[in-house]
Amino acid sequence: MLLDDDIFDIELKLLLEGILLRYQHDFRDYSVASLRRRMRQAMERFGCASLSQLQDRILHEPAMFAQMLQFFTVQVSEMFRDPAYFRALREKVVPILHTYPSIKIWVAGCSSGEEVWSLAILLEEEGLLERSMIYATDINVEALTAAEAGIYPIERIAQFSENYQLAGGKRSLSDYYTAAYKGAIFDRRLRRQFVFADHSLATDSVFSEVHMVSCRNVMIYFNKDLQDRSLGLFHEALVNRGFLGLGMKESLHFSRHAASFNELSPAERIFQRA
Ligand SMILES: C[S@@+](CC[C@H](N)C(=O)[O-])C[C@H]1O[C@@H](n2cnc3c(N)ncnc32)[C@H](O)[C@@H]1O
Predict the structure, then answer these.
(1) Residues near 73 by Cβ (< 8 Å), separated by ≥ 6?
(2) How far is the CA of 107 from the centre of ligand 1 (A)?
(3) Which atom of ligand 1 is nearest to the CA of 215?
(4) Which residues of 135-148 are buried (b: 16+ CB within 10 A; e: fewer)?
(5) pLDDT reported for residue 181
(6) CB-based contact 231:274 (threshold 8 Å)
(7) pLDDT at residue 242, rounded to an integer
(8) Helix 32-45 to helix 62-72 angle, to the nearest 10 degrees?
């Protein structure tokens, strides 16, 4: 006899297939444990007694799917998140980037842009921003719009400033934003070097050759197959000896691409294409 949990898993599979067919978003290789948890939250939020009921609404109401993206993806981010990562970039990666006449960086899964603006500030302070191009991609279009705007609630700035200093910031974070109403608006000049695009690590391919990929706290929500697919894309996109930065809870262990990268700063999860 099937248990309720088994039926839930059948409904989940059907829902993911339905979303792929209807909206071309592929969540089939996301971590099941996290999907289960988040779909239960969505059922509660939309007052649906079963996942099939939720599926009915998602398939028939496109606006509902837009709202569901917030349940399929996790949008938590911070400027200079894990300051040691940004410090290691300054100390170990920047000196090598200096040897390139032009630099392309891909921030995959950029969410609302905190990581992108942080990298731009770091590159500016290291005299590299002018010759850099940052491609910032995500599947969440709402997050991309926020990323492009570069406006963050003022109450988040204390945390961002603390991270910036710990990351080896050379000035004061306030040099890069203007406080207006309840928001900090980051300097538009930094944005000249950004290109934002809707791109999925699950379905899309490589769009440019790059010198560095920063993909942090994204693959943690994927199963092993999708992690491998993503790492394959990064390997293909990176120039020889190009850099790959991952989140603190992510690694290349057990990946079929593990041998294609060398560790540059293992504690900070920074690797170099072999
Ligand atoms: C937790 S945020 C990470 C933000 C930032 N990288 C950081 O470390 O602070 C995860 C982001 O991955 C994005 N994402 C999820 N699935 C994706 C996919 N298949 N392709 C690209 N981005 C994806 C989500 O929309 C979300 O913005």
Answers:
(1) 139, 140, 143, 221
(2) 10
(3) 6
(4) bbbbbbeebbebbe
(5) 82
(6) no
(7) 98
(8) 130
Q: What is the pLDDT of residue 104?
A: 98
At residue 13, the pLDDT reads: 97
- pTM for the model stands at 0.97
Please give, one letter per residue, the 3-state secondary structure of the chain: CCCHHHHHHHHHHHHHHHHHHHHCCCCCCECHHHHHHHHHHHHHHCCCCCHHHHHHHHHHCHHHHHHHHHHHCCCCCCCCCCHHHHHHHHHHHHHHHCCCCCEEEEEECCCCCHHHHHHHHHHHHCCCHHHEEEEEEECCHHHHHHHHHCEEEHHHHHHHHHHHHHCCCCCCHHHHEEEECCEEEECHHHHCCEEEEECCCCCCCCCCCEEEEEECCCHHHECHHHHHHHHHHHHHHEEEEEEEEECCCCCCCCCCCHHHEEEEEHHHCEEEEC
Question: Tokens for 174?
Answer: 């306030």
> Measured in angstroms, how far is the CA atom of residue 265 from the centroid of ligand 1?
22
Q: Is the CB of 113 under 6 A from ligand 1?
A: no
Residues with pLDDT less than 50, the chain: none
Whether 250 is in the pocket of ligand 1, judged by its Cβ within 6 Å, is no
CA of 200 to the centre of ligand 1 (A): 9
Res 1: pLDDT:
72
* Ligand 1 pocket member 268 (CB < 6 A): no
